[in-house]
Amino acid sequence: MTLSVDRGTRSSGALLLADISGYTGFLGGVTDAYRALIIEADEPPLAYALMSSLLDTMVAAVAPPFRIVKFEGDALFAVADDGTTAPHGDALLDCLRSCHAAFEARLAEAGELWSCRCDACQRIGDLGLKFVLHHGDYVTQRIAGREELAGPDVIVAHRLLKNHVRDAIGARPYALFTEAAMAALAVPPEGMVALAESYEDVPPIRITVLPLA
Fold it and tell me: Which residue of 47, 61, 102, 122 is surrounded by the most CB atoms within 10 Å?
């Protein structure tokens, strides 16, 4: 018997993760505060609609030039293949800043319309946005009819969502660039902070961080 295997397609490009920080705590607080009402309600809590709205806003800001690969809870994963319309230099920074500005505007609009003023619901103000941008190789496969990206560089990008950036810059939104992304995408380093992250099974990763507020 011959086993048919999809070996996928090898590519390289920019790997972008945009993550909504503080959302787990916000949603958990709302759920705990209104558990009885949620159980009896016909519809999910408004917090879920807010999440969808914020993700829609982020997608509209980055796609194109990035292509959305998938949603990962409170984050989106996107890619811009080399040789396509991947933004470089100031155009890349403008894209990320525009996404952050649109996110903040949508969040402010939601905050004005949010009717409940309890402590749990007021944690809406704790929500923020952070970006991780890496550049490297990956394999694109079709699994159950959906595009999936795999490879060591994809793992590195996801690892960097857990970092120590806020120990250096405080509780601020930011864009994190790996050394590979800085070089491949000609990112200007002005106003950025140079750091490094270490994980058990990979060499130290040099990063550069741009505070967004």
Answer: 47
